[in-house]
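Archive transcription. Copying these from loose printouts into the bound notebook so they stop getting lost. Printout 1 of 2:
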Amino acid sequence: SPIDMRSTKLRSYPKEVLEDGRSIRVGPATWSYDWALVNASLGWSARGSWEVRLLQPFAQTTRMTFLDRDFTLQAFHFTSPSENRIEGEGFDMEVQHVLQSADQKVLVVSVMLRVGLVPDNPYIAQFWSSFPRYSPGVQAVDKVITNPFYGAIPEDRSFYVFKGSLTHPPCTNEVTWVVFEE
């Protein structure tokens, strides 16, 4: 990781909203959450990117099942420019949702963004101005935000899947990446 994805590897499945109203299934993936609003901590990752960490109990109740393995959303961070590419094209920004299973396997769900879309994106607009300015030792800011699985995942859930690694230390291998086409 990172890689350049080609449309020959794109997977598209019909989207199915499940009866509970808080779960969406697309092919081998099911996104689910218990609360539409979550408590989160807005701050900076060790590598200097914007990071949102879900606070408990929300980190355990925002889930994704992928290929019959359950993962919980721990955090998501923004990288600029994007680390991955689609059809040779890089993007202004990439949001990487980091999930972990009970047996410590890692899944990253990635959404590409164009900077012009950030101010018009109601999900990001709710917290973007609340990020603290970057400086060594800056304290994170706690905030109630819309659950990422409710507001941040694209309506079109066509995606690419690949095995790779984390793009930052400890560069964990055997990471499953799900990268949305749009």
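Printout 2 of 2:
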Amino acid sequence: MTIINILDYADSYLRAAIKKYGGYPSSSKARFLSTPKISEPEWYYPAKESVNAYEIGKQSGSYPNHSSTSQNFNVPIRYPVSTTSSTKTINGFKTDKSISKNLNLNLGINAKIPNINIPGGFEIEVKPGAEVSRNVKTNQTVDFSSTSEKTQNTNDTPSDTTQSFSCPPNTKATYIVIYFGGEPKVEVTAVTDIIGNGSGIGTDPTTGQEKSQRNVLATLDYSKEGQAGKKYTMMVTADQLATKIPGYNPPPRVEQDRSHNALTIHSDLIVNLKEDFAYEIIVKFENLSYSTLFNEDLFIYRFDKNHNLLIEKTVGSLFETNLHADIFYEHIESELE
């Protein structure tokens, strides 16, 4: 997690600039001349995301019905991985969400968003299907001298249950349950601008000359040797914080926009997307009166983590099936042989 305390960087820059010109900085900390302006992040999304869940476990079984009437049978659902989410919020930023489990999978999101310690903050919300949204809080008061953190833990493990199916007369039902887990990462980037919102007369840190300046971010008083009692003021604009000078190193992943006196901050959001389904049940029904494949049918059922049925698909006779069903047929046969 990258923490960018703008006031700390401004203070460090101003002290380095004052010493550069032979001055003695004040013992007090630099201050914002007025509340800085921070732009809403401009997000850059991938052109297209391909989100495919991957298999994390399977179970299989069968139910032969030799009677002349239909019989119900239950398929036990026991999710093979225990998942716990931890969401941390720092100064208004929903900074990370990670899920730990015994298979060491990474579900959820891991957001590398700079914590910009000025009034205002951002909340990042990731929804299924690679929809990334953000809300901007412009009236939030932030304590520049400390970091406020809040962590919330939640249990995401699907509960144990059973799914009931009906087996026709004189038919054998063979089933396989496929459990799905994490998905590939999607990288999203954002650009945020910070601009000083003050004006006044003070020393320009690039020239050492006193002049009238606009878009001032912060100031720091200083004195000069041999001029006791006389105070000077060093001023810095936001874009100057991106420049390295002796005694000062700029924040990571920033650049300057001199035309607007803006400090441009680049952010990364790495999203490990969660599919909207948790497991799939594939059932093959085989008529016990015949041995021909004409009497074998496949059915596919897809459920979310709350065990709600999302998709119910009848594939039909294997001689009438498509490639998708063929793949599942081969899969179930290899598992149950």
